[in-house]
Amino acid sequence: MTSRTFSSGRMRLSAISVLAASVLVLSGCSNGEGPTNGSNDGATPSASSAASATQSATATPTPKPVYKPADAKGRAQNVPVPVKPALADKNSKEGVEAFTKYWFSLLNYGYETGDLTAWSKLSAASCSFCNILKNSVAVGFKEGRWQVGGRLSTPSLESKFIPGAATQQVVVQVIQEKIQYYKADKSVGRPPGDGSNAASVVIAAYSSGKWAVSDMHLIQ
Q: With contact defined as beta carbons under 8 Å apart, do 177 and 151 qualify?
């Protein structure tokens, strides 16, 4: 082999080596790893992604509103809205009892906030006792006034359920705390209302898949 032949062969070998190296580099790029010069390779998070994840992990959660009952300084705040149980729409003994308990929880919500919107929708316009309660709450919150106390509870209730009857009666023990009234200027309003512990009869009618109170009266 002459020196020219050897030189020519060495050049061909070098070219083949360069070509092989290029193929290896291209193969590395096509195996899913991708280029590594400044771009994310899919396995290691980028600096911006890592920073974002760190910020998310260390972000301070938004505090939940805290319930605060009314006092001499002002109205109740963040009062939880009563949630109607699914059972309260059933036309059964358990259903009318669950409804009655829910109805009183909405009334209690009204004594704390002055808002009887939901309660009124479940009370017939012909219910005279309901109207008395509604007017009492309205006066207690008129012109910036508010009430302290007056919390309602129903520790005992029972229905003498009669299947197919037009209305159902529920006997309820209703306990109410003493009520103090305040004016908008934070001065004491009318004389406080005494607490009570009495038995009442709630008369409920079922129509269009739901209950409504048609009447109510105290048991003497």
A: yes
